[in-house]
Specification:
By secondary structure, the protein is of the alpha/beta class. The chain folds into 2 domains: 150 residues, Rossmann fold, CATH 3.40.50.620; 178 residues, Alpha-Beta Complex (Argininosuccinate synthetase, chain A, domain 2), CATH 3.90.1260. It has a 5-stranded parallel beta sheet, with helices on both faces. β1, α1 and β2 form a beta-alpha-beta unit. α9 packs across α10 and α11 packs antiparallel against α12. It is elongated and about 85 Å long.
Length: 393
């Protein structure tokens, strides 16, 4: 009789290697190791070697970088989604895609269950599992951190030693930080940052130079937009993944994209984290700038009104919900008009709009000019004010 199968979201690191072995011990099933490459620091050889040492036959590493940026990051940028006024949702937007692809693998191999390594206090367990439920409401979900008896870092290290799982030197003591990264961002959380009184040490930043150490000369960059999405950098067309990678490099060198925040998790816990989103910071500012000269006031303001809810849905793991999809239609209602280019000036952590270019006629120089009065009937202004003053009572 063939063994049942479980698809584990596997990074190749210590925690998911322990989970892999624990699943083998506690479930009479074959474990399939699945890794989504969404632009994080990834050692494919290490993933394969570690999984094989644990007896895994099926090791799947899928390159999802282009899909991630095109179908997840870009729609979110079009919505200008910022959670609690600060967070550009770098981790939140990655989980729905991983969940979708993991279920796809589970169906291909006729697996009866999927598993992940998210902790019991975090948001990611919710994001993963809502995604699993959306694509397969009947599949079994195994969340080891919620059910096993391993309660501490010491327990994990002892379990790894018992089963000959390699332990990196930096894992033998209590870890100072927990790090997540993908093509959009990096996040750093953990013990050294848990006290909000403590400032973030500079060495934790992985893809941004400190503003103090960034170039003393301004950097100029032009982002071209078509149908609401970025398509080029400095006149060179790039696919979505390469475009974001390029922006990350340029913005990172100029100290752009650092955020230190205390956020409200979906489960009700306040959490302090330090995020780096260099390319995403450029994109969201450039996108707002191109919309300012291509979209009408009503469309822009309607988008601004729905944005907080849109961002909250993404943060909470509701990317596939009917409500998010409904809001996305509002976000994209007139995206075909959003065409042109934005030139940005980057200097020591600052992003400054240098120029805006478009063929759109939404912005009228004649109407706005102090030198020309014929195209705007000022006699209507008094009636306009009289109409609106009635609303004061």
């Amino acid at each position: 009789m063939k063994k049942r199968k479980i698809v584990l979201a596997y990074s190749g690191g210590l925690d998911t290697s322990i989970i892999l072995k624990w699943l083998q011990e506690n479930y009479d099933a074959e474990i399939i190791a699945y890794t989504a490459d969404i632009g994080q620091k990834i050692d494919k050889k290490k993933i394969i070697i570690n999984a094989k040492k644990l007896g895994v036959k099926n090791i799947i590493i899928n390159d999802l970088k282009n899909i991630f940026v095109k179908d997840y990051v870009f729609p979110m940028i079009r919505g200008h989604a910022i959670y609690e006024g600060v967070y550009l949702l770098g981790t939140s937007i990655a989980r729905p895609l991983i969940a979708k692809d993991q279920i796809k693998i589970a169906k291909k191999y006729k697996a009866y269950a999927v598993s992940h390594g998210s902790t019991g206090k975090g948001n990611d367990q919710v994001r993963f599992e809502l995604g699993y439920h959306y694509f397969d409401s009947k599949i079994k979900i195994i969340a080891p951190w919620r059910i096993w008896k391993l309660k501490s870092r010491t327990d994990l290290i002892n379990y790894a030693k018992k089963h000959n799982i390699p332990i990196p030197k930096d894992k033998k003591g209590a870890p100072p930080f927990s790090v997540d990264d993908n093509l959009l961002h990096t996040s750093t959380e953990g013990k050294a940052l848990e006290n909000p009184k403590n400032s973030a040490p500079d060495f934790i930043f992985q893809r941004t130079t400190s503003p103090e150490k960034s170039p003393n000369k301004s950097t100029y960059i032009t982002i071209g937009f078509s149908n609401g999405d970025p398509i080029s950098v400095n006149g060179k067309k790039l696919n979505p993944a390469k475009l974001l990678e390029k922006l990350n490099q340029i913005a990172g060198k100029n100290g752009i994209g650092r955020v230190d925040l205390v956020e409200n998790r979906f489960l009700g816990i306040k959490s302090r984290g330090v995020y780096e989103t260099p390319g995403g910071t450029l994109l969201i500012q450039a996108h707002r700038a191109i919309e300012s000269i291509t979209l009408d006031k009503e469309t822009m303001h309607k988008k601004d009104r729905v944005m907080p809810r849109y961002a909250e849905l993404i943060y909470n793991g509701y990317w596939y919900s009917k409500e998010r999809l409904k809001i996305q239609k509002i976000v994209d209602a007139k995206r075909n008009k959003v065409n042109g280019s934005i030139k940005l000036k980057l200097y020591k952590g600052n992003v400054i709009i240098h120029s805006r270019v478009t063929k759109s006629n939404a912005y009228s120089m004649k109407k706005v000019s102090f030198e020309e009065n014929k195209s705007f009937n000022k006699s209507n202004v008094e009636r306009f004010i009289n109409f609106h003053k009635k609303k004061l009572k």
